[in-house]
Amino acid sequence: MSSEQLGKQGLLKAVQQAGSGYGARFILLHQAVAERLGLNIIDLRCLRLASEAEEPTAGHLAKITGLLDRLEKARFIRRERVVNDRRKVIVKVLPGGTQRIERIMGPLSQDMDKALQDFTEDELKAVLRFFDVTAGAVSRHLERIDEHMQSKREQSRRSPPTG
């Protein structure tokens, strides 16, 4: 394999990793937005689904409420009660479930690699630059949201209770 090909293979891998990191940053962004709104991320995503539906119904949201039940039934997770606080339940992701996901997603990685083979090194570098620049923008926005939330928490601690 030529040094040029090795460089491209490295770029292909870097593009896939950058895409994955990009997606993860958006999950963090959605989580931060949800927290700022007093929601959890699933609630926020459900709200998005309901808003995109032509005529949202309670059924749209009901699909999500059974999420843990479905994941547990399908053996992706296991719920465990916290011994010293029976109100809390920890959700454990089961290795077998993770492996099942990897078996399904593995071909996507191969397909992405094939799809990117026709890109030149300069094009791959441009894709990487896009992910780097936009990930930086998302990270800065997350910091602003975090600072806002921290400020609100500090203000609520300093403010005397009303009523």
Write the layout of secondary structure elements.
Elements: H1 3-36, H2 41-52, H3 58-65, H4 67-73, E1 77-82, E2 85-93, H5 95-116, H6 121-158
Antiparallel strand pairs: 1-2
List keywords for this structure.
163 residues, mainly alpha, two-stranded antiparallel ribbon, 6 helices, 2 strands, 9% strand, extended
What is the gist of this entry?
The protein is mainly alpha-helical.
Task: State Rg.
Answer: 21 Å
Oligomer type? single chain
**Tally of DSSP β-strands:** 2
Strand content: 5-15%
Q: Order the strands across the largest sheet as they lie in space.
A: 1-2
Mean pLDDT: 77
Largest beta-sheet characterization: 2 strands, antiparallel
Please give the alpha-carbon distance between the first and last residues.
75 Å
Q: Note poorly predicted spans.
A: none
| Global geometry | extended
Look at the helices and sheets and give the structural class.
mainly alpha
Total helices: the number is 6
Helix content: over 70%
Q: What's the helix-strand series?
A: HHHHEEHH
How would you describe the overall organization of this protein?
It is a single chain. Strand 1 and strand 2 form a beta hairpin. It is extended and about 65 Å long. It is mostly helical and 163 residues long. A two-stranded antiparallel ribbon has the order 1-2. The mean pLDDT is 77.
